[in-house]
Design a protein that fits this description.
single chain; mainly alpha; 82% helix; EmrE-like
């Protein structure tokens, strides 16, 4: 019995790592294919919604996200999440080949620094406390600190979408990046919350109206945030190179998700001094990488 249990415990992380690596490569091709579809439709004078290459990039995004979901369920997040940096590097290589977007030496160094800094942030980020019930989730969602943070994010998103994006979105890549990244504060917690609430809604026992309302609220939040994010990703790809957008978007999205999770699940209470210093170093590395990418542009 002991001999049978050991290979099984090893096979799950290995399979999760394999799925995560494959998903990272698929995700790395997403922006490149969508950008290629946009360029092809622009040459024809039509909409990219009718371009097969653009749709292949969209399909890659869906498959990649499904792969990420599967990987998180068979391997620890601290192993799976850093592997997402492989998608950024693969996307840069693919963009150089398909789109002829060649990064200079500063751009390549900035891309590597962004990936390395993000991995340090992920590895040293505090781990989430286990939330196993809908009641615990409701308690976390009603926490004043998270409520204030969510309201600030919403106000900032309204400011960016209504006023800043129309005026400066096409000239400053950070506008679209900020919109897409801030939406991650809602997409990831909503995804995690749906898994918990669905147990009460679709379980064997009678479902309460409170659970159903929370489920529909989380589902609506997830759908709206994904659609808005998807729209502005394509707006960004119309104006900027795919490899630069992907690198900056990866690090900012990762940072906002870590912050939102830390506030929602109160992870910051378990943050040690060593991890704090390591995260500060990782954030500094990311900032340097983003500056180098901007300079290279």
């Amino acid at each position: 019995m002991a001999g049978n249990s050991e290979p099984r415990s090893v096979s799950f992380p290995v399979s999760g790592i394999v799925i995560a690596v494959v998903s990272s490569f698929i995700n790395g091709s997403t922006f490149v294919l969508q950008k290629k579809g946009i360029l092809r439709s622009r040459d024809r004078g039509g909409s990219y919604l009718t371009d097969v290459v653009w749709w292949s990039g969209t399909l890659s995004m869906i498959i990649g996200q499904i792969g990420n979901f599967l990987a998180y369920n068979v391997a620890p997040a601290v192993i799976v999440t850093p592997l997402g940096a492989l998608g950024v590097l693969f996307g840069a290589v693919l963009a150089s080949w398909i789109l002829k977007e060649h990064l200079n030496i500063l751009g390549k160094l900035g891309c590597v620094l962004c990936c390395c800094g993000s991995v340090v942030l992920i590895v040293h980020a505090p781990k989430a406390e286990t939330v196993t019930s809908r009641l615990e989730l409701e308690e976390r969602l009603s926490d004043p600190v998270f409520v204030v943070y969510a309201l600030l994010v919403v106000l900032l998103l309204v400011l960016l979408i209504v006023w800043i994006a129309p005026a400066h979105g096409t000239s400053n890549i950070m506008v679209y990046v900020a919109i897409c990244s801030l939406l991650g504060s809602f997409t990831v917690p909503s995804s995690k919350g749906l898994g918990l609430v669905s147990q009460d809604v679709f379980g064997e026992g009678p479902s309460s109206s409170r659970a159903l309302a929370l489920f529909l609220g989380l589902l609506g939040t997830l759908a709206v945030s994904i659609l808005i994010q998807f729209f502005f990703i394509n707006k960004a790809l119309e104006c900027f190179s795919s490899n630069m957008f992907e690198a900056i978007y990866y690090v900012t999205f990762t940072s906002t998700v870590i912050l939102a999770s830390a506030l929602l699940f109160k992870e910051w209470t378990a943050l040690t001094l060593t991890d704090s210093l390591a995260m500060l170093c990782g954030l500094t590395t990311v900032c340097v990488g983003v500056v180098l990418l901007r300079i290279s542009q």
